[in-house]
Design a protein that fits this description.
Its EC number is 2.6.1.17. The protein is of the alpha/beta class. It is built from 17 helices and twelve strands. A seven-stranded mixed beta sheet has the order 2-8-7-6-5-3-4, with helices on both faces. Strands 9-12-11 form a three-stranded antiparallel beta sheet. It has a two-stranded parallel ribbon with strand order 1-10. The structure holds pyridoxal-5'-phosphate.
Length: 404
């Protein structure tokens, strides 16, 4: 057995293997059948917003300083003003001093938040973290590294691609330290309703765990803007207790390389998270904070991004014509297609790469089979519609031509 194989045998590695590394391994040695089109990675190809360069230039000298972990006042204010504009129930509620912390992209925040979330419930001997299934890998990585048991909650078509919260056992809820909820969800684009979010908040408070609402796709929608966990908490209960929302400029502003996001919500949790972050996490570089403040203050580029994705979904509708179980998702920019008729996700990914140079992500790399349940991602592939409409049309037409 080689060293690589030995490493991949560890429980931690099995839990947190990168879907993209697995895809590269799957396609290794297979030449693409045409000029590649990568639908595998959720990296937006929207235009760089025009304010990025001038703001960066103006503040370039501040790379020479250590930034404050809690962010500069300009950024905290831009974030709280954005929250108040986006979610009117939060107007006058979000205090930039107490309710907001900047992050280096939402991923590191989703990861590191688990440590103070765990520390909130020291009395629990066997802590658990609830994770939707399919899921974003960092939820599982965080639970595994923090020593909590990841519990994968089936989120299939029969429950609108969100976990059925009524089915979670009370004993499990008592030992839960955090529930990750992604809305709009990756990969299915399902949006949690206000009632659903209220239920999640009620459970979090009853059993005193942290609801980690991953809302990085909230600004990409075709018709109705998705509800947010914080606004629902405030409107329904007049409090943000037990709820934090993770946001990002990666998808909303098409700036995944900026590595900038924020977490907002429960002030007691954020105070603990700030103390933790102050010794254990990286600060956001000052020039990036200034660019981020400009990004949260501007909606024009976000409306342009929504139009960009709308054109892609229109192309998908016209070209796929309902094939592969296509339905336009409520939010986000992914297609979650059922390719059971083509041998399932992994086989279809190989067929498409080899046949027409289109790279798609097998759904099984985003799911976990647990307790003998069938792997619900096995039949699926995920496509990120992040290219311009012409490339999107080309890629989708190739898929139809190859699979039929
Ligand atoms: C569901 C979900 N959450 C969080 C992230 C992290 O994004 P970032 O760290 O760029 O903010 C991603 C990125 O693809 C994602 O798909």
């Amino acid at each position: 057995m080689s060293n690589t194989e030995a490493f991949s045998e560890t429980a931690l590695d099995v839990l947190i293997r990168s879907p993209f590394a697995r895809l590269n391994a799957l396609l290794e040695g297979i030449p693409p059948g045409a000029d590649p089109i990568l639908f595998s990675l959720g990296e937006p190809h929207t235009a760089l917003p025009s304010f990025v360069q001038p703001v960066l230039d103006e503040h370039i000298a501040s790379f020479g300083k250590y930034p404050p972990i809690r962010g500069i006042p300009e950024l905290r204010h831009a974030i709280s003003s954005w929250l108040a504009r986006r979610y009117p129930a939060l107007d006058g509620v979000v205090d930039p001093e107490r309710h907001v912390l900047p992050l280096n992209g939402s991923r590191e925040g989703l990861f590191s938040a688990i440590f103070p979330a765990l520390a909130r419930k020291p009395e629990v001997a066997d802590p658990a973290v609830l994770i939707p299934n399919p899921f974003y890998q960092v939820y599982a990585a965080a639970s595994a590294v923090a020593g909590a048991e990841p519990i994968f909650l089936r989120s299939g078509a029969e429950t609108g691609f969100l976990p059925d919260l009524d089915k979670v056992d009370v004993g499990l809820l008592r030992r839960t330290v955090a529930l990750y909820l992604c809305s709009p969800s990756n990969p299915e684009g399902a949006v949690a309703s206000r009632d659903y979010l209220e239920k999640a908040i009620r459970l979090a408070r009853t059993h005193d765990f942290l609801l980690c609402a991953d809302e990085c796709y909230s600004e990409i929608y075709t018709e109705k803007s998705p509800a947010g966990a914080l606004e629902v908490a405030q409107a329904a209960t007049g409090s943000l207790a037990n709820v934090v929302s993770f946001q990002s400029l990666s998808k909303r502003s098409g700036l995944p390389g900026l590595r900038s996001g924020f977490v907002a919500g429960d002030s007691a949790f954020l105070a603990a998270f700030e103390r933790f972050r102050n010794v254990a996490c990286p600060q956001v570089p000052l020039p990036i904070q200034y660019v981020s403040a400009a990004a949260w203050a501007d909606e024009t580029h976000v409306e342009q991004a929504r139009a960009f994705y709308r054109a892609n979904f229109e192309a998908a509708e016209a070209i796929l014509q309902g094939r592969y179980g296509y339905a336009r998702p409520e939010g986000g920019f992914f297609l979650w297609l059922n390719l059971a008729d083509f041998g399932g996700g992994e086989k279809a990914a190989k067929t498409l790469w080899k046949g027409c140079g289109v790279k798609v992500l097998p759904g099984t790399y985003l799911t976990k089979s647990q307790d003998g349940q069938a792997d619900q991602g096995r039949d699926y592939v995920r496509l990120a519609l992040v290219h311009d409409a012409e490339t999107t049309r080309d890629g989708l037409a190739r898929i139809v031509a190859t699979l039929g």
